[in-house]
Design brief:
- There is one protein chain.
- By secondary structure, the chain is an alpha+beta fold.
- It is 30% helix and 23% strand.
- It has 12 helices and 15 strands.
- The strands form 3 sheets. Strands 10-9-11-13-14-8-15 form a 7-stranded mixed sheet. A 5-stranded mixed sheet has the order 5-6-7-2-12, covered by helices on one side.
- Helix 2 crosses helix 3, helix 6 packs across helix 7 and helix 6 crosses helix 12.
- It is globular, with a radius of gyration of 21 Å.
């Protein structure tokens, strides 16, 4: 019998198994809307081809004496008809033959949902791109061999399963762990862990032109619009005198050389007080200033160096996993869960080979939401279609309405879709 290969969880992944539950799943999703109805038999075949190309996706989660770890999963991952309950908990010991992801299909849509311990948005997108590539090839669509997609024809590099946090760790750097408290949502939630999904599709060039008008990036424009909407919908929040804080994940591969397909991202923060009206121009100025201050290589390195240092601490390493879990949950609930009001994650512009493009209408990226962070946003651009996805645990849609209203008032045309659960 061949000995199974095992892997340590990367530095960012270690927290998620301990703090995840049915109300806080730490699962996100990516969807490709195809131009034709999905053939489930070919999709299953494509998944079985691709899983062997991605060893870090081909794992199950195991409990060790000191930490959780990954072990090669010799089972076969199975595609599923899409559930109306999006980003629900992936129960690693019984869900999908032990895999930490799900591949769904529904009509013309192919969806990947991923537990965050496996990878970040970048790694998940690479995996789904490869599945779509193989699926189209199985439909006899000829695609030129293109290294922009990590298909089974592209060599798997050792660097792809690298823990880049540890590789780029500098023990001379250190940052404060202190996280100031933030404004919290206080509004009626859906029952049974239902999440509302609202997706707005816009012309990417029109949004780019609007960002140029305000002299900011697209992420800064969208972030300022979230601040604007939060002010308009401030009845959704508790009345404490805390700022509305927005976390914006950053792909660290932009700052540090890495080809890893594991987690290698970190958040930056920007915040605003909602107790007084601020012009949209001033909101843009505030968020630009915060982004320029936070998006510095050394500052980012300081932030993850602090996390890696804790992981390498000998006294912590020898503590049994069960005790670590109790401490991690308590720390997360008391500190991390109060530090953020909202997350805005923008995966940027997706580019695919021309032969694939004619078979894909649009792509949607959705951040999971939870009782900790009840409303979150995912953004991605493909083929001049910019999609903005709100996931929400709360019934009130005032924030989403004010957000999209801002853009329509700016002359932007938007197509809105949702998952249609109306609650009295």
């Amino acid at each position: 019998m061949t000995k199974k290969k095992w892997y340590k969880l990367d530095n960012a992944a270690k927290i998620f198994p301990s703090v995840s539950n049915k109300g806080r799943t730490n699962v996100f999703r990516l969807s490709f809307d195809m131009t034709d109805t999905v053939d489930p038999l070919l999709l299953q075949e494509a998944l079985e081809i691709v899983i062997n190309r991605f060893p870090m996706m081909n794992v199950r989660l195991k409990k060790g004496l000191f930490w959780y770890y990954f072990e090669t999963n010799e089972a076969i991952p199975l595609i599923q008809v899409e559930s109306p309950f999006i980003t629900r908990l992936i129960e690693y010991y019984k869900d999908n033959n032990g895999f930490l992801f799900r591949v769904y299909y529904f009509k013309k849509r192919i969806t990947l949902e991923v537990f965050h311990s496996l990878t970040d948005g970048f790694g998940a997108l690479e995996f789904l791109k490869s599945i779509i590539y193989s699926y189209l090839e199985l439909k006899d669509i000829e695609i030129k061999n293109n290294v922009a997609v990590l298909s089974d024809k592209v060599e798997c590099l050792r660097e792809e399963d690298q823990d880049s946090f540890n590789v780029h760790y500098n023990n001379k750097l250190k940052a404060s762990r202190k996280e100031p408290k933030s404004l919290r949502f206080k509004s009626q939630a859906y029952q049974n862990n239902w999440l509302g999904l609202i997706v707005g599709t816009m012309d990417a060039q029109a949004i780019k032109d609007l960002s140029n008008k305000y002299n900011c990036s697209i992420t800064e424009l969208i972030g300022a619009a979230v601040f604007y909407a939060a002010y308009k919908a401030r009845h959704l929040f508790d009345q404490k005198d805390y700022p509305f804080t927005m976390f914006i994940p950053v792909n660290l591969r932009r700052f540090f050389p890495s080809r890893t397909l594991r987690n290698f991202s970190l958040y930056v923060r920007t915040k605003v007080k909602l107790n007084e009206e601020i012009s949209f121009e001033d909101l843009v100025t505030m968020i630009k200033s915060d982004m320029q201050d936070e998006l510095q290589k050394e500052k980012l390195a300081e932030r993850f160096a602090t996390n890696v240092r804790s992981e390498r601490n000998f006294a912590l390493r020898i503590v049994p996993r069960q005790i670590k879990e109790v401490v991690l949950r308590a720390t997360y609930n008391q500190v991390a869960s109060n530090a953020n009001s909202f997350s805005l994650s923008n995966l940027g512009i997706l580019k695919l080979p021309d032969e694939m493009s004619s078979h894909i209408d649009k792509v949607v990226f959705s951040n999971g939401a939870s009782y900790t962070y009840p409303v979150n946003m995912g953004v991605i651009t493909y083929n001049n279609k910019l999609t903005i996805s709100f996931t929400s645990e709360i019934i009130d849609r005032s924030l989403q309405r004010e957000f999209f209203r801002f853009f329509t008032n700016q002359g932007i045309e938007i197509v809105i879709e949702n998952n249609d659960l109306e609650v009295e």
